[in-house]
Amino acid sequence: MMKDNLKQAILLLSEGKLVSFPTETVYGLGADATQPDAVEKIYLLKNRPRFNPLIIHVSDFCRARRYGVFNEHATTLAQHYWPGPLTLVVPLAKQSSIAKNVTAGLTTIAIRCPNHPVAKKLLSQYIHPIAAPSANVSGYISPTNKQHVVDEFSDQVFVLPGDSSDVGIESTIVDCTTEGEVSILRPGFVTKEDLVSTLGIKVKTRGEDSDVNAPGQLKQHYSPITKLYLNVEKVINNGVCLNFGKTHLSGAFNLNLSPNTDLREAAANLFHYLRKADNLAQANNIKCICVAPIPNEGIGVAINDRLSRAASQDAL
Ligand code: TXA
Ligand code: MG
To answer: Sign of the C-alpha dihedral, residues 30, 35, 37, 43?
Structure first.
């Protein structure tokens, strides 16, 4: 069964069609990164702004080096964290076969080597890298299981089945395009402390250090349809509540991201529970989702980043 699914995915990709596949972070919406017409379909299906470049996925560091130029820090990070939830932005290799619309015309490229058994099989058997954003309509909550993808795109894309994403939030994106410097463009499971301890240098963060730039990091993203309130200590309007640890918000429906106060567990549950909360609210005419405070440390930084974008009213 798995073998046939894999064969079908490979055939579809080579024909320039889209395939959704599981990764340990979120489910991706993949296209052959060397076929511009296939990549175009991603932007169309997701309704994704054209200035927001895509990440290419490869099976290993050796293949990654065909498409990007890895300096010393980038090499150290790839060797330390791959396969895993880390994306490296590096200069695009000269004469690479990557379609221009993958990088939105930039001279840099984002590369990732995921650690999920199904993604690993697909990437090691397919000859080209796979360009893939998260498999959701641009702006909505990212998918962490097959059903989430089916809910959004029904039968419009083939979904390669596999276990749900156990990290649950998108990869940490690190810019390695400036010699001797490393900056975080998007926080994730691999934390700033992790990077500092691996490299032994200072690591900048976009937002905190204003000279760091990331195209396409939208202020509003990951948003449920229902209005979202953060750092809630007292429930407003009898909403759907997302607790963390010992917080006890009590509304019409109550979920807990991690009863054990475990930030990893909270990250793994985050998008799934946001979707659940949104569905409950929509089905029961509930006006808001209330989220308890989440500690802003370690992976909590990435969780709060996603939550604040999900709650943002600003389009850009
Ligand atoms: O975990 C993940 O990274 C997932 C799975 C599917 O791999 N993918 C993902 O892709 O989150 P997406 O498209 O939702 O987010 C990609 C981010 C965007 O914010 C984009 O701006 C940034 O990567 N990006 C891509 N290429 C870039 C580049 N050359 N320079 C800076 N940022 C880049
Ligand atoms: Mg996304």
So the answer is: positive
132 lines ligand 1 (CB under 6 A): yes
Give the residue, out of 29, 51, 55, 86, with the most ligand 1 atoms within 8 A of its beta carbon, to mutate for a pocket test.
55
Q: Residue 82 contacts by C-beta under 8 Å, 6 or more apart in sequence?
A: 60, 61, 64, 113, 115
Report the C-alpha gap between 241 and 292 in whole angstroms.
8
Q: Rounded CA gap, 132 and 27, in Å?
A: 9
Identity of the highest mean pLDDT range in 89-93, 150-154, 310-314: 89-93
Question: pLDDT tens across 80-138, in order?
Answer: 999 999 999 999 999 899 999 999 999 999 999 999 999 999 999 999 999 999 999 99
How remote is the CA of residue 98 from the centroid of ligand 2, in Å? 20
